[in-house]
Specification:
By secondary structure, the protein is an alpha+beta fold. The protein contains 13 helices and five strands. α3 packs across α4, α3 runs parallel beside α6 and α6 crosses α7.
Length: about 350
């Protein structure tokens, strides 16, 4: 299934966790609504750095360097494009014969591929060439549309999808649903790859997600479980979090490492009930995430931990704690289905 929700080495369920109980969780649920009403229009904008671990360590320096190639581009925007195109897979080939981590068609590569690492070769399969080429191509398109009204980054992305001529002729992002959706997806994903620069708004769906997870406390774990009747209503870790947010109208990917990209990433001291919390043996790479739970406050989550255990409260402050995601509707809708 892409991740196994294996038991973490230092899980210890003490009396304090059991003592949280129904009343504590319901107080948290009420608290979510109160805070949601008090924090308005405070979503981070203008993010500059990359979110912790969002870009695999092997590519982080490349993305950071080449993502600053021109003003219309940013490291987070470049990361969002690469993730959307390939899911960081440098060997993938699409049905349209788009190749590598940046998904260049060979004919496009022939005219826009560059020798990013200076080794004398332009290799479509080498991320050291393909990532710089993606940034170079973006910035070339940005030059073509620099005088078009509207946001230059949006127009650049529209040109990437529909061609610069259509953007120029339309005076901005053209009225093509595929292009408009592409721009919106990439800009939403950008929020997942950018380190927030301000406190994030709470999710209005958080309370419902917590309530669903709470209702499953005590349910036996099932690897690959998504809660269907033929599975006895059992879940694995990402099956539980997917079902919890599906209950409130948000569709998440099936596996934990893709769920990480469903919104921006609050720091540990800014966690709020309803955030998804993630765990990994490699704290530099979100693609290595192997466990997820629903944060409920007080340093605890509700999760489906492993075979032989039940859905329960567990502490999150363990050595393999990776980070958190504040799930958003736009963030979830932006996630690619083919990575």
């Amino acid at each position: 299934m892409g991740e196994s929700c294996t038991v973490r080495k230092v899980w210890v369920l003490g009396g304090a966790a059991v003592g949280l109980g129904m009343g504590f969780v319901m107080l948290l649920v009420v608290g979510v609504y109160v805070v949601a009403g008090n924090l308005v229009n405070n979503v981070a904008t203008g993010s500059r750095g990359l979110a912790k671990g969002a870009v695999p360590a092997a590519y982080k320096q490349l993305v950071q360097q080449w993502g600053n190639l021109c003003p219309a581009l940013s490291p987070a925007l470049l990361a969002a494009q690469l993730y959307q195109e390939s899911g960081w897979n440098p060997t993938v080939v699409s049905p349209a014969d788009a190749r590598g981590i940046a998904q260049f068609i060979p004919s496009t590569w022939a005219t826009h591929g560059i020798d990013g690492n200076g080794d004398g070769k332009r290799d479509i399969w080498d991320p050291n060439d393909a990532i710089p080429s993606a940034a170079s191509y973006d910035c070339e398109l940005a030059k073509y549309v620099k005088d078009v009204p509207g946001n230059v980054s949006d127009n650049m992305l529209a040109a990437y999808n529909a061609g610069a001529y259509r953007v120029i002729r339309s005076g901005g992002v053209p009225a093509i649903s595929e292009t408009q959706n592409y721009v919106k997806r990439i800009r939403s994903l950008e929020e997942s790859f950018a380190a927030p620069v301000a406190r994030l708004d709470p999710s209005r769906q958080a309370a419902g997600a917590i309530a669903f997870a709470q209702s499953k406390l005590g349910t036996p774990y099932l690897w690959g479980g998504t809660g269907t009747a033929d599975q006895g209503g059992r879940f694995d870790c990402s099956g539980l979090t997917k079902a919890a947010y599906e209950k409130v109208g948000i569709t998440l990917p099936r596996v934990a490492n893709d769920q990480y990209n469903a919104g921006p990433h609050p720091s540990r001291d800014e966690l709020m009930p309803g955030d998804l919390v993630f765990f990994s043996d490699d704290l530099t790479d979100s693609r290595a995430i192997r466990h997820v739970g629903v944060y409920v406050g007080g340093g605890y989550m509700i999760d489906a931990p492993r075979t032989g255990a039940v859905i329960r409260f567990d502490p999150i402050d363990t050595p393999d704690y990776f980070g958190a995601t504040r799930v958003t509707e736009d963030g979830a809708k932006a996630l690619p289905t083919n990575v």
